[in-house]
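FAQ

Q: What does a record look like?
A: Structure on top, sequence underneath. For example:
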């Protein structure tokens, strides 16, 4: 079953009289449970494609369908709900709120949706267990290492139990050893919890944790191939 379908997608940006064609006739499918790594040179359109998949941006032409829904048919409020509850995002920068503790940072999507945190207590505990930080729930970001902060960001992305996680250079700010531990955590989440993952990365080592490699060059998909472990 395809949880993501990209059909004939183009994305252009206008700057005065100049037009930059960032994505050109992109077609891609992602099956449920896959771990897709998107690689390519800087400026090749990787992050732009990821933002289109996650509904953070819209294509100039073509369609992006996620969980059976054409994202261009959604109104702003529906898009916001989809981004907050149906998919999860993990970025290179952790985007934690400095004066909130671990538990509160993980609960932010609940607050945004107006949900009662007490209803999600078990899920919150499960997320802390997944990232191995049950004993650090009351610490603030400044008391955590970079790797620990990224784990909190991962838990935050999981609190609504989304089917899909989108990762934008998730270990770009981490040293090699810590980064590989984070990638192993993503692989565990993919395999143990059945989450579909799409990541953009410059790191070949990070890409190899996936199950499928997409090479994007100059806005076009150059190749799609399985990753053999």
């Amino acid at each position: 079953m395809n949880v993501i379908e990209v059909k004939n997608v183009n994305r252009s940006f206008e700057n005065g009289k100049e037009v930059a064609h960032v994505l050109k006739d992109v077609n891609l499918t992602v099956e449920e449970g896959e771990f897709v790594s998107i690689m390519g040179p800087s400026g090749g359109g990787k992050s732009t494609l990821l933002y289109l998949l996650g509904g953070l941006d819209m294509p100039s032409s073509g369609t992006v369908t996620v969980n059976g829904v054409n994202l261009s048919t959604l109104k702003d409020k529906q898009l916001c709900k989809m981004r907050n509850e149906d998919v999860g995002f993990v970025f290179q920068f952790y985007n934690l709120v400095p004066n909130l503790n671990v538990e509160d940072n993980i609960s932010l999507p609940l607050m945004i949706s107006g949900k009662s945190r007490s209803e999600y207590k078990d899920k919150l505990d499960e997320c802390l267990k997944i990232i191995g930080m049950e004993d650090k729930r009351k610490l603030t970001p400044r008391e955590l290492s970079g790797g620990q902060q990224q784990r909190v960001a991962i838990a935050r992305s999981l609190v609504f139990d989304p089917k899909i996680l989108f990762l934008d250079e998730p270990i770009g700010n981490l040293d090699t050893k810590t980064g590989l531990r984070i990638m192993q955590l993503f692989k565990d989440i993919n395999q143990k919890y059945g989450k579909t993952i799409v990541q953009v990365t410059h790191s070949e080592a990070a890409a190899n944790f996936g199950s499928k490699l997409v090479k994007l060059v100059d806005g076009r998909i150059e190749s799609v191939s399985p990753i053999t472990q």
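Q: Is there anything notable about this one?
A: The first strand starts at residue 2 and ends at 15.
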